[in-house]
């Protein structure tokens, strides 16, 4: 099993299911990339770079969603 920590929660992926990029992770989690800011190991990743940002096991990812309202 390979894992990532997403918003403080360990996510485990079986062999062959580990997301190669940040964009793939968002698809697996059913998160619309247009609605989040992503931070990978303490570094903010620009939305345009999601598809090219490679993931490695054990990394920490924080996803912050924008929600309309007051």
Structure report:
- The chain has 70 residues and is mainly beta.
- It has one domain (2-65): Ubiquitin-like (UB roll) (Roll).
- The chain is built from 1 helix and 5 strands.
- It has one helix at 22-28; strands spanning 2-6, 9-13, 36-40, 43-45, 60-65.
- It has a 5-stranded mixed sheet, with no helix packed on it.
- Strand 1 and strand 2 form a beta hairpin.
- The longest helix has 7 residues, at 22-28.
- It is globular, with a radius of gyration of 12 Å.
- The mean pLDDT is 94.
List its salient traits.
Ubiquitin-like (UB roll), 1 helix, globular, single chain, mainly beta, 70 residues, 5 strands
- Looking at how many chains there are and whether they match, the oligomeric state comes to single chain
Tell me the CATH topology.
Ubiquitin-like (UB roll)
At the first level of CATH, the class is Alpha Beta
Find the count of extended strands (DSSP E, 2+ residues): 5
What is the CATH architecture annotation? Roll
Q: Tell me what portion of residues adopts beta-strand conformation.
A: 25-35%
Structural class: mainly beta
Query: What is the general shape?
Result: globular
């Amino acid at each position: 099993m390979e894992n990532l920590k997403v918003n403080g929660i360990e996510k485990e992926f079986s062999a062959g299911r580990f997301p190669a990029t940040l964009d793939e992770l968002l698809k697996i989690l059913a998160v619309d990339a247009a609605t989040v800011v992503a931070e990978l190991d303490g570094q903010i990743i620009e939305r345009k770079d999601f598809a090219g940002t490679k993931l490695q096991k054990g990394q920490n990812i924080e996803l912050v969603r924008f929600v309309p309202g007051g």
